[in-house]
Amino acid sequence: MTSRFLSLLVVLSLGPMLRAQPETPPKYQIYGGYSFFTNSLNGVPGSHHALNGWDAAVGFPSWHNLRFKIDVSGYSGTNLGGPQKPYFIQGGGEFSHRLGRETVFVQGLGGVGGANNNWGANGSQGETASFTGMMGGGLDSRLTRHMAFRVEGDFQYAYYALAQGKNRTPYRIAGLPTDFGRVTSGVVFNF
């Protein structure tokens, strides 16, 4: 009788002991989801128009909670009669910290942005390349051991200019935006 009681006590205490073991951070992260961009490229004051799109990212193995990340996003919409199709390819660092089932993170990324060549008002010509920088953060809420739901908010800088003439000489008009906000949510796969 005593041996059965001790065996039962050992089996019941194994569950909490195993759960108390620290979880190792995932080696790789793959993310995909919906993204909201707060303004169009030609969104001068009085004609701001948000863009909708997608976001995808890959995070590489971390070192002391710091990992290298590559982020690619694309958007679509129209404003002032001009189609808006910007995309961004960025890389940088992400620092994360686990709080129970959730993981909070901050990030800083830099890279290039591109756009269709007729994004100006009424389809006028615009520059198609820009430096872009982004900083922000978010929250991953674990759904299963290898999957989490991500919500992320970022401040993004991108400098696009209009173009004129045969040589596509760049010029800027007052109020052409350079600062954008970005909100994205989707699913993260950890492995």
What labels describe this entry?
mainly beta; Porin; two-stranded antiparallel ribbon; 1 helix; elongated
Report on this model:
This protein has 191 residues and is mainly beta. The chain has one domain (26-190): Porin (Beta Barrel), CATH 2.40.160. It has one helix spanning 2-19; strands at 29-37, 51-59, 66-79, 82-84, 87-99, 102-114, 129-144, 147-158, 162-164, 169-171, 179-190. The protein has an 8-stranded antiparallel β-barrel with strand order 1-2-3-5-6-7-8-11. Strands 9-10 form a two-stranded antiparallel ribbon. The longest helix is centred in the first third of the chain and has 18 residues, at 2-19. The chain is elongated.
Compact overview of the structure:
The chain is mainly beta and 191 residues long.
CATH class group: Mainly Beta
Q: Element order, helices and strands?
A: HEEEEEEEEEEE
Q: Using the alpha-carbon principal axes, give the shape.
A: elongated
Task: For the largest sheet, list the strands in their spatial order.
Answer: 1-2-3-5-6-7-8-11
Strand content: over 45%
> What proportion of the residues is helical, as a percent range?
under 10%
